[in-house]
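[#protein-structures] MJ: dropping DUF7939 domain-containing protein here for a structure pass
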Amino acid sequence: MHSHILLNAMLPTKPSPTSPLNGLLVILLLLLSSPVDAKVGASLSSNATGLDQPVRLILQMEGEQEMTPDLSELERLFEIVGRSTQQSISIINGKMSAKRSLTLTLLPRQAGRLEIPPIRIGNESTEALVLEVTEQPQGDIDANREQVFVELSLNKSRAYIEEEVILTLKLFQAPGIRAESLDTPQPSMPDTQMKLLHEERYSSERDGIQFNVIERKYAVFAYQSGNLEIGGVKYRGRTGSDRLFSFFNDPFRAPQQATRIFRSESNQVDLEIMPIPDNFTGDRWLPAKNLQIVENGLDQQTPILAGKPLVRRIMVLADGLTSAQLPSIEQTLPSGIKLYEERPQLQETPTRTGISSSRQNSMTLIATESGEYDLPAIEIPWWNIETDRQETARLAAISIDIMPNPGATQGVQQTLNPPSTREQAIQSDAGGTITSVNQPAATTHKVHWLVWLFGTAWVLTLFAWWYSRRGDPDQSRQPIPVAEDEMEAPDKQAIGEALQRLEQAYADKDAPAARSAWLQWAKLHWPDNPPHNLTRLAARCDQALSEAVYSLERTLYSPTDETEWTGYEIRQLIQQTQQQKRSDKRSERLVPLNP
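AK: finished. structure tokens for DUF7939 domain-containing protein:
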């Protein structure tokens, strides 16, 4: 008579009152028994299969060795799409037997007679196996095409070097099919850049069949001329149970429907890449749908003093170019002005219609001397791909008037006319007395009189201050309130009307009307120095309000841009800005007399 104890990790047993005692007996028998030698084996669930039909490879080992097989040769012929493990320990007549199995679900990579090479497990190797893989029947291929297919399309068939081309990939899947892999389109030319712009999922009907569609849009930039081919996008999906062979994974569960594999490959699209046109005269080739130069930060209305920094921000905006393609700002400044440039700020915004990018150059100008300076115009030649001709983006030349800086003078005495070095001296024969002709007595007397007058006024001011502090010793610590009438008080009715026009323009999605309403509102808030364009208006606003203004400006200058400029609560943003300014002004009204 012998004892037989089977421990299976995959099938848990019900607990019994004597389970602790049985556990102790199992441990004791494991310690006393001697392990058997390791043995390995391999078997297939079937000796023949189709190209898109999975097959199971079962690897078994008896012994105490770890089951870490080398699958590198196997993966060259098959794709491993699933794996599961199982382990059991048996003790018969005091001898322990440990069994482990690894089940691999394989998809053949090619048709024909495939030899599964010996697989090394520890110090042992399995025997080689042979599997016959047949081509998929044409009927199955046609049926698959009716349920899954991939389409590629381009928005144009010809383009220039570095021009943006939109590639659209659409994957159509019948309901119940799950995508497992979808390749990225690969261009035939190595020097080609592709950027994912947009991805969306929706339902669509084609030939009376409802499909789940995955749509992706790419921006393609080719950097050499010739014929560019894009295709060969491969897809694999499946339908059925998540378990490819649920019956073998769990022998006590009823078999489920076998998984069906779907494969598809896209069509090929061709694109002719043309060289740079001979009639382009610019230094840098810039093919774009739109390109412009805008400026922000330079206020010509405010007096500029010599020696004081003047910040100038120039931004290049483009549709159809990456930020790396945008040129730097080149300008020639007149003598007497020093230039300090910061690192440019680059930004890219992908949309369904392409890439919109910007490059902002911030620079500090310092005029060493007063006078009028002419800053030359900035021009960037570019190629309009929609009209197929050269255009020039231009920032007009401006003149700045630099005022003398009193704080930069060397002293009060240098501001006065210095005495002339040309003096006439009369020397008498007897005494040698010298009399200066350039210092009349009347002028000297006038200067002394002015000094006496300012000195007396200064003494009287000090006496008045001392007397006012003498009556109330705590008065020095009381702040002096600023009268409300001295603060800016724009017409509230006009402000309200301007806000109504602004909200109406946003509701009607009328960008030109919104621009006019913004400038009217700005004119009421800054009557002495109103901003004359949206760029300067945005520079005076806080971040949230500035983003709304910039969004409108971008829409006006880039009609093809799909930026949603109407998605802002304008009145709420303005009220928040005004509340913040009132809070700041209340803190500024309390000006201490004796800080």
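MJ: nice. The two ends are 106 Å apart (CA to CA).
AK: one more thing. Residues 492-586 form one domain.
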